[in-house]
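From the pipeline queue, job 12 of 40. The input is one protein chain; the requested action is below.

Action: predict structure.
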Amino acid sequence: MLKELSIRNFAIIDDLRIRFSGGLTIMSGETGAGKSIILNAVNLLLGSRASAELVRSGEDAAELEAFFEIGSGSKTALAMQTSGFETGDGLLIRRRISLKDGNRVYINDRLSTNQALIAITDNLASISGQHAHQGLLKPEQHLSILDQFAGLTRRRDRVGQLFRQLTALIKTHDRLIRTRQRQTEQIELLRFQENEITSAALAPGEDEQLETERRRLKHAEELYAAAYETIERLHGQDRAVNAELAEIHHRLEKSAGIDPALQAPASQLADIRYGLEDLVGELQRYMKTVQVDPGRLEGVEERLDTLVKLKRKYGGTIESVLETLASIQTDLAEGENIGDRIAETESALTATREELVGEATALSAARQKAAKKLSKRVEKELASLRMAETAFAVESVTIAADAHADPRQVDSGRLLTESGWDRAEFMIAPNVGEALKPLAAIASGGELSRVVLALKCILAASDAVETLVFDEVDAGIGGGTAEVVGRKLTELARYHQVICITHLPQIARFAEQHLKITKAVLGGRTRTEIRKLGKDDRQKEIARMLGGETITKATLAHARELLENESSRGR
């Protein structure tokens, strides 16, 4: 449930904080006061794409924040846990839209991604505005609604799982068949390549070691001479460095006997002499490793030439050559048992297809029964919404396979898909004597709003979404119909938190919480404000909705009557 919404520097809103409660919340206000902006903010907090154009003029960034109370066993709680978020303290979503730094998403104060946000909020809230109404005109949504109504979601998920398994097996089978077809012409080449690489007996890093050895062999005399000359100049000559240092050290030690301040320099010089002796020893050991061996040099260069050819042919490095060898050996091993693998795949494919056909058959039969029940339920709901003469039907048909379809995904001319082989479409005839036609072809704005509301009421108990937001539920309706819509929203509020933006007092009268949105100009800037209405202010707002900005005694009396009538019914 949405508990609090905060909006800063967003469009014409500079700083707005809204607290929500359960039940039915009504939001009303003048046209252009900012109701649609608030709805856009909620959409963004549910994962809609953001644009820097939404930042309030003159500001660097906009910030949106929403806090949701999360049920412990809800789908949202499970999605949060899957993404590594704690659920005990609820869900805090924050989005920052910056002109300079782009957009950032924070979930429970942790930097996150928009993909993670969408996954977590998938079952959190549903916004039935113009977009949702237009979405209902798309037949691809109708099958999902039918399945939700009939409680077939798990069965549909199983069909989808089997279909994906079948698709994967088809791809594996086709790949194995292609491999077998290429096997005869490829096997000889693969064997040659395997022998060429294995006979070289490569070792990782061998080329680098050989390069180092080749340099030493080519310059052996030069390296030996450099070490020998260094030793001679340090230690071997009459006036070698070491002898000079010994004499200097002796004099410095003698002077240190006179002045102790020279004792430390004398000790440092002694360390230098010992270090030179260690260096001479190391160079002497190095000279023993230097070898002048033309034969070995020739062998190293031949080996390097072999490695260069293999690297050039198989990827550029010793590691890539060895990876190629592993791939070749895998292909050869696969080739040896390709027949067995094809048989195993065909067996699994047949079993999976049979199970899929069985599940799709049962799912289709259940949908046919559910389509009739849903049609009657929608007609009943529409009748209560002042569309008593409306005929409604869920037309469920099978998807016919065309000539290009894979035969393994076809059963008796029906094309198997991830949702089975059915296609559903909502048909409607608002007036007596008219033929049923697709919803998209005939429904007006007011009729479409009521169809949306009827479906929401029917699905209320099974809908996992915790918060329902209605923006255009009053489109194209008025008077008595609006009152009926208000009662339907009240029924929905028994199952969900319902937030409704409306211009109609007949709907607003049913509010358990009434919020008024106003727009004012302060300091040359437009600013949107919102406040919760008490009893008297609510009566004035209902009066404004009834008669416009000029509130008369008559409109106030009418407003009071509306509210009292509703109160007398137990609200």
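Job complete. The mean pLDDT is 86.
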